[in-house]
Amino acid sequence: MSGRLEYSMTKRRDILKIAGLSTAAGIPVFSMGGVPHLQDEVVEPHNATLTREPFGDLRVFFQGPTGQLKSMTAGSLRLNPGMEPHPPHQHPEEEFMVVTEGTGEILVGGKTVVVGPGSMMYCESNQLHGVKNTGTQSLLFYYYKFIA
User: Fold this and answer.
1) How far is CA 86 from the centre of its chain?
2) What global pTM score does this model have?
3) Are the beta carbons of 146 and 94 closer than 8 angstroms?
4) Which residues are CB-contacts of 127 (< 8 A; sequence separation ≥ 6)?
């Protein structure tokens, strides 16, 4: 091993050891920008941040940087019948949606697709997309937005 590579590996190991000790001691681990990043945990729905909107109940389970991503948001929306959270839109984050209850329509890739439990959407950054509940029951979906 060259001296430079050996020095680099040693430094990385030291950082990882410190991060492990910090986490065990309850001290937040920081991302490259100095902002605490998301930690391993389970968040039950009743502990997620809940916002009651006219279109439905919005929950945010996780939000912030991770060890791999600049920004990550994971949440759910229980969308009321006949509603959409907002008109089709676009944003810099990539996004996944997973429908677990109800029926509706998702606009993505220039197409509107009828969806139900088990349907999953992926949308690239800055691409037009939207969701609407077309059923008579609430439409529950989980979403994951991120910037690498």
Assistant:
1) 18
2) 0.76
3) yes
4) 90, 108, 109
